[in-house]
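User: Hey, my collaborator sent me this sequence without any context and asked if I could get a structure. I don't really work with proteins. Can you help?
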Amino acid sequence: MITLPEQKAVDKSRGTYSLLRKFKQILFIKYAEITDPGAIFAVDFKSVEVPDLTALFDKENLGVTEIERNVISVKKDPAFAEEFEKVVGGASHEILRLENGAEAMFIRPGGLDQDKTHPMIVQLHGGPFGSAAWHMFSKTRTIFLMQGFCLLIVNFRGSTGYGENQLNSLLGTIGVNDVEDCGDLTLMACEKFKDVVDPKRLGVEGGSHGGFLTGWLIGHPKYKDLWGAASLWNGVLNMSYMVTATDIPDWIFACTQNREFDFAKGLSSADVALFYERSPQSVVQNVTTPSMLLVGDKDLRCPPH
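Assistant: No problem. I've predicted the 3D structure and written it out in structure-token form, which is a compact way to encode the shape of the chain:
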């Protein structure tokens, strides 16, 4: 393996940790961060027969060994390695926050021409009860950064990691709260970073609930003119149809009405009308953004037909 020139010290309080496997008293863990493809470590506990977690993780009881590091080969492709270090290794980020608690991370590639403005892609996570891990190393984000795109990674109200009240605030309000959060954070980023971001070159993309939000944003009267391009994959587009075809109809009742689905009672006409009203399909007449739709022909969760 060839290491990048002058490896930088990394603040490991940030980033993502993944447990790969356990062997006896050894944990094999992968660590990575936005600008660092990461490494695999062996964490060895001299003893697990200890009174509490403080004793378990005491440095006298803990051994950490770096086993393998993901690196860019300087010998194989020196030009790419240099560009990677400049763009990805030199990337910077900042957190934006709305008063309601919704947040987004703005990521700026390193080495941008400061005399020009640059395109930005807004990335929306699915779930909706999930979250975008900001400090993770992602191939997709890396590709976009290497192409010169700024990124806005959104965690709308209802994303995990912000407490139970924030999580439950999305029940009964999808198509409203989450859409407004994504649109308003985009507007905030465009204003705050107007010397960096070209407002005429904005893209938005997401899958599943992220596709739902993308569909809403390109059709919403307030946000529809922001976008130069969009990509929706496995998107939830019409819940009045989806409720009879998906493997999780209870999700639709919970997220649009904040109630459980009564299988014995079934659907009412008011239910169907509300599901359509909360669907991106209801604003499709407003869409002028060039958009790519990707669907899975055998998708049972977000069925194509």
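In plain terms: The chain has two domains: 16-69, 91-294. You can pass these tokens on to your collaborator as they are.
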